[in-house]
Specification:
By secondary structure, the protein is mainly alpha-helical. It folds into 2 domains: 71 residues, Tetratricopeptide repeat domain (Serine Threonine Protein Phosphatase 5, Tetratricopeptide repeat, Alpha Horseshoe); 62 residues, Tetratricopeptide repeat domain (Serine Threonine Protein Phosphatase 5, Tetratricopeptide repeat, Alpha Horseshoe), CATH 1.25.40. The protein is built from 9 helices and no strands. Helix 7 packs antiparallel against helix 8. The N and C termini lie far apart (56 Å).
């Protein structure tokens, strides 16, 4: 497939993915990967679709492959956190969140997610530290304020 057609397929796949028309997106993503087996974005999107469909094994495989090709992409790592967390593996989730925070240290969503994981793991001292960091970047953050009050 030539580059122009591949670009068009990618734009269409992105569009269908963004509006959650996953069956249309999946068909295009498979064609993209046939043409370019190292397209990490297509792998990640397929992984996200598999998560949505409840096919966690395939989701984990696809997202692991995307991470191997693009190991510093917070979006891909965050998807893996979701998989690990839902499998009950809090320690791996925390490890991945710490890696994400090294890449995006001021991202409030990531800071809150990390704090909540530490809270779930009964490490309240570190959870509080992350909630306070959230308030440094977003002083009016309701979630951080409520969680600190509860702790």
């Amino acid at each position: 497939m030539d580059a122009e057609n591949l670009d068009l397929l990618t734009m269409l796949a992105d569009h269908f993915f963004s509006i959650k028309q996953y069956s249309k997106s999946m068909t295009l993503l498979k064609k993209i990967l046939e043409s370019n087996p190292n397209n990490h974005r297509a792998m990640w999107q397929m992984g996200e679709i598999y998560i949505d469909q409840g096919n966690i094994n395939m989701a984990e495989l696809m997202i692991e492959q995307a991470i191997k090709l693009e190991n510093n992409n917070p979006k891909y790592l965050y998807s893996m956190v979701d998989i690990k967390y839902n499998a009950g593996n809090i320690d791996d989730s925390i490890y991945l969140m710490e890696k994400i925070l090294k890449l995006r240290p001021t991202n409030v969503e990531y800071l809150i997610a990390t704090a909540m994981l530490y809270e779930k793991n009964k490490n309240l001292k570190i959870a509080k530290k992350y909630y306070f960091e959230v308030l440094e970047f977003d002083p009016d953050n309701r979630t951080a304020k409520a969680r600190l009050k509860a702790l």
